[in-house]
Amino acid sequence: MHNGAPVVSPPASTRPRRPYSERVLLPVNVTLGIVLAVLLIAAVAVAALARLGHTRAIAVAGLRAAAQLAAVSYLIGWVVHALPRLLGFLLLMFAVAARTAGRRITRNRSWWWAALPIAVGVVPVVGLLLLTGLVPPRGLTLIPVTGILIGGALTATVLAGRRALDELETRRGEFEAGLALGLLDRDARMEVARPAASDALLPGLDQTRTVGLVTLPGAFVGMLLGGASPVQAGAVQLFVLVALLAVQATACAVALELVARGRLHRVPLTPAEGE
């Protein structure tokens, strides 16, 4: 009460928002560039001193990320204004993810099968979101959502494929014993590879279980910085995490099935399949 009259707060929509400079997480300036360079050098130095390997890969990955993000930042502003360009950009994201996943799993020509788990995981979820209107068919919305889902499917596909094939190589004798007992090739591989491949779901499960307690993921922070309320930001983050669980579970299951059926493999089934 003030002078006998109640004090009414203005609606949230009319309250003055903080200046953009106060809402951004990191300012884009020379200081940011210097800090990024120091962190990348530190990562390379630690890997080299500890003899962890991947020293060159760490340096190349950091430099590639900088170049790719700079290019994508400008490219997105161009593709969002035309549907053909938008669809082409989404297809490019999918193609890069499929090749990256495939080449992480195997070096022979069976790598292209890695596109199937990613597609089967991502396409139905994106289609559902568009049909229900939860995600409008606009570039600035569709690109980040689809990118998050493709990234999750890529991770699950790589982990499931690699772990399954590693397990089959390590436990070759158990696979052959299954065949001797009368199991089909697919069933014998599945019995050996399934427990290891299922570990591909652990990163997504851990992220979902600990959200808000250990970390505040990117979608939540981005919504807050954009001016959304904590409730809105939490709803968006929950949607992202649950969608990722569906995508990753599907990608993991399809990748495991491809390994069990011999579609994704490391030892060529015939000389023509090797590289």
TrEMBL record:
Membrane-crossing ranges are 24-50, 82-99, 111-135, 141-161, 211-229, 235-256
- What name does UniProt use for this protein? ABC transporter permease
By sequence similarity, the record places it as follows: Belongs to the UPF0014 family.
Highest taxon of the lineage: Bacteria
| Alphabetized UniProt keyword annotations | Membrane, Transmembrane, Transmembrane helix
The UniProt record lists the keyword Membrane? yes
Mode of membrane association: Multi-pass membrane protein
The entry's localization annotation reads: Membrane
> Main localisation, per the record?
membrane
**Coiled coil segments of this chain:** none
- One Pfam family assigned to this protein is UPF0014
Q: Per its UniProt record, what InterPro entries does this chain match?
A: UPF0014_fam (IPR005226)
